[in-house]
Design a protein that fits this description.
There is one protein chain. With about 325 residues, this protein is of the alpha/beta class. The chain is built from 12 helices and 13 strands. The chain has helices spanning about 5-15, 20-25, 30-45, 60-85, 100-105, 105-115, 130-135, 150, 185-190, 200-210, 225-235, 295-305, and strands at about 50, 55, 90-95, 120-125, 140-145, 155-170, 180-185, 195, 220-225, 240-245, 255-260, 280-285, 320. The strands form 3 sheets. Strands 3, 4, 5, 6, 7, 10, 11, 12 and 13 form a 9-stranded mixed sheet that branches. Strands 1-2 form a two-stranded antiparallel sheet. The radius of gyration is 30 Å and the shape is elongated. It starts with a helix and ends in a 5-residue tail after the last strand.
């Protein structure tokens, strides 16, 4: 059963004429006749009494409301798809890590809303791993996250690197570690830390770094907002390892101190080699089908244009990631 057969059936039922139905469908009368015959073969009964005027049989009357619903549903779907491809999307959903939402997204959102005032913009702050999952599940259109190749290497994902930024140490202004200009990595082992909750890429990054260097992370408290991190750290001995962009407000707070990490490891209990720089890579991600939708594509371009990046801006490279990366 094909859609054009149902459309021909509806036109014959409405006009009472195979000839008039052919004119409405912009085909020949013989084509309409073949379509109706094929449909009758499919349902196993005649659909019209063939006389001076084509009149529905009982079977035809039974089929008519269903055929109408099917054709109407297809017409609605076709119109909605056409509007989507023309940029008339009803809403655009974005999920991003907290630091990007707070520091970098506002000018992007303002510019987008001016360009697409009819598109409802929904923005949610989530952890990186959770954000990538909801993108993969189709719940958001664009994700701005710390890169996690377990998710972004899927063949349907399109990823663009925005920037790489250093991980730094947040502590109270009177914390013992403030004596260092750059804190030796080995010193971090001896202080309890505030970390992000599960689902946040920063928690995974810090834990993996400690494990890779043969040390145990002393995670005393789990939080999920930057305000909470600042409030807890300023009270005492706890420290937090956070990316540069998450510490913009903290730099203005005299009760807090921020130090970089000395990545040269000299403590023999951990390692005698030079460690790689503590940093994270922030990326914008969507799927290959979404990037073709005009509002999504425009938002993507604004992100690349207006987000200034972290400590060290890297050259943006757009690519569809392959399985073997």
């Amino acid at each position: 059963m094909r859609l054009e057969q149902l459309q021909a059936f509806l036109w014959v039922a409405e006009t009472g004429s195979f000839q008039e139905a052919a004119r409405k469908c912009n085909v020949t009368q013989s084509t309409v006749s073949r379509q109706i015959q094929a449909l009758e073969t499919e349902v196993g009964a005649a659909l019209f009494h063939r006389s001076n005027q084509a009149k529905l049989t009982l079977v035809g009357e039974c089929l008519w409301p269903y055929a109408r619903k099917i054709c109407q549903a297809w017409e609605n779907a076709s119109q909605e798809i056409a509007e989507m491809l023309a940029g008339k999307q009803q809403e655009l959903c974005v999920a991003a890590i907290h630091s990007v939402c707070a520091a970098y997204l506002p000018p992007v959102l303002q510019r987008f809303c001016r360009h697409y005032p009819e598109v409802k913009l929904r923005v949610t702050a989530l952890g990186s791993d959770r954000t990538l999952k909801v993108l993969k599940d189709g719940l958001v259109d664009i994700a701005i996250v710390m890169n996690n190749r377990l998710f972004t290497t899927s063949p349907e994902m399109v990823m663009d690197v925005l920037y790489t930024e250093a991980i730094e140490v947040l502590m109270a202004a009177n914390h013992p570690l403030t004596e260092y200009e750059q804190i030796p990595w080995a010193e971090l082992i001896y202080y309890p830390q505030v970390v992000f909750k599960d689902g946040y890429g920063m928690q995974r990054l810090v834990k993996e770094q400690f494990e890779r260097l043969g040390a145990k992370l002393n995670a005393a408290l789990e939080l999920n907002t930057l305000d909470a991190f600042r409030g807890v750290v300023r009270q005492g001995n706890l420290i937090a390892l956070l990316p540069h962009s998450a510490l913009i407000d903290a730099r203005l707070d005299p009760t807090l101190a921020i130090r970089s990490i000395d990545t040269t490891l000299t403590n023999s209990k951990v390692s005698s080699r030079k460690d790689s720089v503590w940093s994270r890579e922030v990326v914008v991600v969507t799927t290959s089908d979404r990037i073709e939708i005009p509002p999504i594509k425009y938002f993507w371009q604004l992100v690349k244009e207006l987000i200034p990046g972290g400590v060290r801006k890297v050259k943006s490279q757009k690519s569809k990631v392959k399985n073997n990366l």
